[in-house]
Design goal:
The complex is a heterodimer of chains A (738) and B (155). Chain A is of the alpha+beta class. Chain A has 5 domains: 184 residues, 2-Layer Sandwich (Dna Ligase, domain 1); 127 residues, ATP-grasp fold, B domain (D-amino Acid Aminotransferase, Chain A, domain 1), CATH 3.30.470.20; 170 residues, no CATH class; 74 residues, no CATH class; 115 residues, Glucose Oxidase, domain 1 (3-Layer(bba) Sandwich), CATH 3.50.30. Chain A is 45% helix and 16% strand. Chain A has 25 helices and 23 strands. In chain A, a hairpin with a 2-residue loop joins strand 12 and strand 13. The longest helix of chain A is centred in the last third of the chain and has 50 residues. The radius of gyration of chain A is 30 Å and the shape is globular. By secondary structure, chain B is α+β, with helices and mostly antiparallel strands. Chain B has a single domain, classed as Electron Transport, Fmn-binding Protein, Chain A (Pnp Oxidase, Chain A), CATH 2.30.110. In chain B, 30% of the residues lie in helices and 42% in strands. The chains are: A alpha+beta (738), B alpha+beta (155). Strand 16 of chain A pairs antiparallel with strand 7 of chain B.
Chain lengths: 738, 155
């Protein structure tokens, strides 16, 4: 098969090779609609590329590393980044290049083009992949075109695409991608016409912006919107946008420009043009036999159809997670807004709320008032959880965006090299740990003090030390963790401090990262350089907040739990029995009605799963999240009280590293987490301390038990249970063979 | 406790399916520190505690087994394609081999011959030894690097 197909050479039977977008363009071109000159690179080119280079097998190794259903989206993002990096580092083999390049060169030599994804299956309205795969505009020169073809191919394995296919139960193995290379039309006004409104069947919708369509599609530029009668084309309403910017071509790619004052006041389309754009939808509908979304652009007075696809049916189920997955990807401007909101609004508000609650003496409230207080706090806590989900989690995309740009520019061997630039951003938990270590250092140097602190009469110890200890204890004491408060007793906290003072290993390894940052920035010029600096700053904030926001949420939770604990204490006094099992509503009820007797139920805390002597794990695959090898005894932490049994040199095994747990991380030799990902709290904290870390160990609680000897292989992302042989191996230390 | 027991049951079922699917296995023996591996036709008992194979007494493996009865056996369902890295399963068996009396332990021989009827003449020949491996542990490998151990001798 020819690997570069002109639109007029594409026949009906080629549909599954050229993908939805390519096929739709061919249909429109044949009908004489005004579409820019374009060629299609069929899926066969993709197939040959991944086969010749061995990428197909590498992708499958990555994607099937764990059972796909067991992967969280953080892990899927990591997987997608590794796959994308593999595409970036794998050039198209020479022979294949020779088949693709000459026709492209002769058609588009020196002209700017768009390189667009055209996935087979994309043209079915049920499995619409709109906006799922990547497209690139304003690409000039054959080298750049070739590179962007690879990036479009890679987007078949983006996290979004993988999640979509999982939700829809599509077969990953048969996936292939076609590419459309289209002459770039530098349109002054662009938009989309929806032949049938997704919300009202009798209507059509036109959205229009100044500049390129990409601004509208990725949400950077807000469009003017017209609602039309689908039958007659009559304009029913117009909602003007607050017109500020336009996305326009720049030297490299595109850039956002501010509109001139006169354009700000002028809708992008005239009445006649609205009707002309509407005609596009009618024409497309008759060509394809069903209503279509058509992307278009005006250059001067000439209207071009850029692409058409069937109307997407809106997800019909509340359980459809796809819209939320999509919302996790934010563009740069959106991320900047999120950052401002989190840093300047959410966090100060959370702090204020927690401080206000902390200053209230719960002892003094009547039962009735305490019940009100519990209700209010629980309600606010739920609100904050929602804020966390809506704003804080999506902001984590800030570091991901940086990671992608870093990899595009640097093409590093390690796809996670960018995290080295993010380390040391002054996270709250790390600052607190440093304060803790300062105290530990004082104990280490002062044997009298150490002796005194180990005794039962702490009050006689150095008063200056005690003062600082108290203030730090107050900071930590307020933390909540899983419906309980972290510290019940300062003694526990003190013992932890003593363990820290006398541990042998040096906490904090810092790596030289300035060089990496300088290298990265040197690849950018002028305007682009400012973007790069801003991006690093944004990514650092995103990285830092990924941990900090949890701490602030933890403070709110701690105060919520404090009020609940006070309620339980009173009920305990009143009814003389264990009240730990009560839920919030029972406590509130019992406080309000003196006659209410809560049901009896045994208190059961989540404990580790039983160990089976007959069935054991030897080696468990997770995700590599912090490089290095650690060997030690496992300490499974599922409850706050278990935290204080942590001993120096043990391996922290947990469900997820809760901010409260950060406390013992300096004592740990390594970290194992059930939740997966390179950029989750646990992994971030482990890297700050240079600890080997494996995340995404499904069933960790089932296979690993406190006291087990385990080896954490943070290079390969595996945990080995049982006596280690790796530690003593000379190969690990780079020595020669015995 | 219920959950763990059920899991053991599931794992044993998986294991049995794998053994069932493969007529041949790789047997590893050693003598004086010289390792040796070869293919054998094998069978297994329903409780998974025993595996059976046969060899003529003039073989190197028989000599090795006489010197040291500790063995390992590998059974896997690989297809020798890249998909093996996620689809293939392999189990390594460790245990001790002993020759058994073909006439007295007829039920074991029956298990073997039901599986390999074409080997009847071979096994029943006086020069052929029939052996049983008492299994200590199965090491089951899935998805390239996931390894679990099933201990039969632990109470």
């Amino acid at each position: 098969m020819n690997l570069v197909l002109l639109l007029d050479k594409i026949k009906a039977q080629d549909r599954s090779f050229v993908g939805g977008k390519g096929f739709a363009l061919a249909v429109m071109a044949k009908r004489g609609m005004n579409v820019p000159q374009a060629v299609c690179i069929p899926t066969e080119a993709y197939d040959r590329y991944v086969k010749l280079t061995g990428l197909r097998n590498r992708i499958m190794m990555e994607v099937y590393r764990k059972r796909f259903e067991e992967m969280r989206w953080e892990e899927i993002w990591d997987t997608a980044l590794r796959v994308r990096n593999a595409f970036l580092k794998t050039p198209i083999p020479y022979d294949l290049q020779q088949e693709i390049l000459p026709p492209i060169d002769s058609l588009f030599s020196g002209k700017p083009v768009s390189v667009r994804s055209s996935a087979p299956g994309e043209d079915s309205s049920k499995t619409s992949f709109a906006g799922l795969h990547e497209s690139f505009v304003n690409i000039i020169g054959v080298e750049a075109i070739l590179e962007h073809i690879r990036l479009v191919w890679a987007s078949l394995w983006s996290d979004r695409a993988l999640l979509y296919r999982r939700e829809l139960g599509l077969d990953i193995e048969k996936s292939a991608m076609a590419v459309v290379i289209q002459e770039m039309i530098n349109g002054e006004r662009s938009g989309v016409v929806f032949g049938k409104s997704p919300v009202e069947e009798s209507q059509a919708v036109i959205e229009a912006v100044y500049g390129l369509n990409q601004g509208l599609v990725d949400g950077t530029v807000h469009p003017d919107r017209w609602i039309l009668n689908r039958k007659t084309g009559r304009i029913l309403s117009h909602s003007p946008a607050l017109r500020e910017n336009a996305l326009r071509p720049s030297d490299k790619g595109v850039k956002l420009e501010t509109l001139t004052t006169d354009l700000k006041d002028l809708p992008p389309l005239t009445k006649e043009e609205i009707s002309e754009a509407f005609q596009l939808a009618i024409e497309a509908e008759s060509a394809f036999g069903g209503p279509q979304d058509v992307e278009w652009t005006y250059k001067g007075n000439t209207l071009y159809a850029l692409q058409a696809r069937p109307i997407t049916t809106p997800p019909d189920s509340k359980h459809d997670q796809r819209p939320w997955y999509l919302s996790l990807h934010r563009n740069f401007d959106n991320l900047k807004q999120l950052r401002r909101m989190i840093e300047e609004e959410h966090i100060p508000a959370m702090e204020e709320e927690a401080a206000k609650w902390a200053s209230l003496d719960l002892n003094e409230l009547t039962d009735e008032k305490l019940a009100d207080e519990i209700e209010i706090r629980a309600h606010h806590y739920d609100d904050w959880l929602e804020v966390y989900r809506q704003d804080c989690i999506p902001f984590a995309h800030g570091m991901r965006l940086f990671g992608q740009v870093y990899n595009d520019v640097m093409k590093p061997n390690d796809p996670f090299e960018f995290t080295k630039i993010l380390i040391g951003t002054g996270m709250v938990s790390i600052q607190r740990n440093r304060a803790l270590e300062d105290l530990a250092k004082r104990i280490r140097k002062d044997s009298q003090l150490a002796k005194c602190l180990r005794s039962k009469e702490i009050q006689n110890c150095d008063p200056e030390f005690l003062k600082e200890f108290d203030s730090l204890y107050d900071q930590f004491g307020g933390l909540g963790w899983g419906k309980a408060r972290l510290f019940q007793d300062p003694r526990q906290f003190l013992d932890l401090l003593l363990a820290m003072a006398f541990q042998e290993k040096e906490a904090f390894k810092s790596e030289e990262t300035k060089g990496l940052e300088k290298d990265f920035l040197s690849r950018f010029e002028d305007d682009q350089r400012n973007f790069a600096i801003e991006l690093i700053d944004l990514a650092r904030s995103s990285y830092r907040l990924r941990d900090d926001d949890n701490i602030y949420l933890g403070k709110i939770e701690g105060q919520m739990v404090a009020s609940l604990d006070e309620g339980k204490r009173r009920l305990n006094d009143r009814l003389k029995r264990d009240m730990r099992h009560l839920d919030k509503n029972e406590v509130i009820n019992a406080l309000r009605k003196p006659n209410f007797i809560p049901r009896k139920r045994p208190y059961s805390a989540k404990g580790p799963e039983k160990k089976d002597p007959k069935l054991r794990a030897r080696q468990i695959v997770g995700q590599p999240a912090g490089p290095g090898i650690a060997f030690g005894k496992a300490r499974m932490i599922l409850k706050p009280e278990e935290l204080f049994r942590f001993k120096s040199g043990e391996i922290l095994v947990c469900d997820a590293v809760d901010p409260a747990m950060t406390l013992v991380v300096p004592l740990a030799a390594g970290v194992v987490e059930r939740r997966g990902g390179m950029l989750i709290h646990g992994a971030i904290i482990a890297r700050e301390y240079g600890l080997p870390c494996v995340t995404g160990v499904t069933d960790a609680a089932r296979w690993i038990h406190t006291g087990d000897s385990i080896t954490v292989d943070g290079y390969l992302g595996i945990v080995i249970v049982g006596e280690a042989t790796l530690e003593s191996s000379d190969h690990m230390n780079g020595k020669s063979q015995p | 406790m219920g959950k763990v027991l059920k899991d053991l049951k599931t794992v044993k079922k998986d294991l049995k399916n794998l053994l069932e699917s493969q007529p041949l296995a790789v047997l590893a023996t050693q003598n004086n520190g010289n390792p040796y591996a070869n293919l054998v036709a094998f069978a297994f008992s329903d409780d998974l505690k025993s595996l059976f194979f046969a060899t003529t007494r003039a073989t190197r493996k028989y000599a090795n087994l006489t010197a040291d009865h500790r063995v390992a056996m590998l059974v896997d369902n690989r297809s020798n394609q890249a998909t093996d890295f996620r689809q293939a399963k392999a189990v390594t068996v460790s245990g001790r081999a002993e020759e058994i009396d073909k006439k007295r332990e007829k039920k074991f021989l029956d298990i073997y011959l039901t599986r390999h009827p074409q080997l009847k003449e071979f096994v029943t020949a006086p020069s052929c030894a029939f052996l049983r491996i008492s299994v200590d542990t199965y090491y089951l490998v899935t998805r390239f690097q996931n390894v679990i151990e099933i201990h039969l001798t632990t109470s």
